[in-house]
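Tokens for chain A. Residues wanted.
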């Protein structure tokens, strides 16, 4: 059995003997390598083929210590309402192209993905902090992973997982197309954004690795 190296770059490019599936795509690396192995084996055993369009590249493996999509401890609020609330917070921080995907019918490990684009490291950190604060104070939710400050970060709440990408990372991994079978949730808000063509022409910031 092939060994699994912990790290985003390694997990994005599995060896030929370990095939990444749509089940092992989202979240951050847990505190122990045993959790990585256990979750990867559990998820890989469920559904072997990807959902939606065929993909030649896969997003970073996001492994947590849990194996289900149960909501983290918190207030009595539906997963959908919580996902929309998370989307509203990142929208308020001026993240762009905010999307909520209902993936419950196609995966077993979570119910909703919230996806948004950030254009700077400070914006990323602000969005993560505000979502975490609102989740805890308003909804009694706690994250089950430890986000960092890379060009792709997540906040995993079990039933809802937030993904924040730089424009380049989001285009590369294109998880909306990867989950083509998921239904997009209509959001009751939306900023005045320039057309996609104008957004793509904006100069992308340099992503510093310094904290």
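Reply:
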């Amino acid at each position: 059995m092939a060994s699994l190296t912990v790290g985003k770059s390694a997990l994005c490019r599995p060896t030929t003997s370990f095939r990444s599936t749509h089940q092992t795509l989202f979240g951050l690396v847990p505190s122990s390598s045993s959790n990585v192995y256990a979750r990867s084996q559990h998820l890989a055993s469920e559904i072997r083929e990807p959902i939606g369009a065929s993909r030649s590249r896969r997003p970073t493996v996001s492994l947590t210590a849990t194996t289900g999509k149960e909501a983290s401890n918190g207030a009595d609020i539906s997963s959908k309402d919580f996902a929309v609330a998370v989307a509203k917070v990142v929208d308020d921080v001026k993240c762009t192209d905010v999307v909520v995907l209902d993936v419950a019918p196609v995966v077993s490990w979570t119910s909703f993905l919230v996806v948004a684009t950030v254009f700077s490291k400070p914006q990323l950190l602000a969005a993560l902090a505000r979502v975490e604060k609102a989740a805890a104070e308003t909804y009694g939710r706690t994250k089950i992973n430890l986000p960092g400050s890379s060009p792709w970060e997540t906040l995993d709440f079990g039933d809802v997982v937030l993904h924040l990408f730089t424009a380049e990372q989001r285009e590369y991994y294109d998880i909306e197309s990867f989950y083509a079978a998921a239904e997009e949730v209509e959001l009751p808000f939306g900023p005045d954004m320039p057309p996609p063509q104008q957004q793509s022409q904006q100069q992308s910031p340099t992503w510093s690795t310094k904290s």
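The helical segments are 8-12, 33-44, 79-92, 121-139, 167-173, 175-178, 196-201. Residues 121 and 207 are 7 Å apart (CA to CA).
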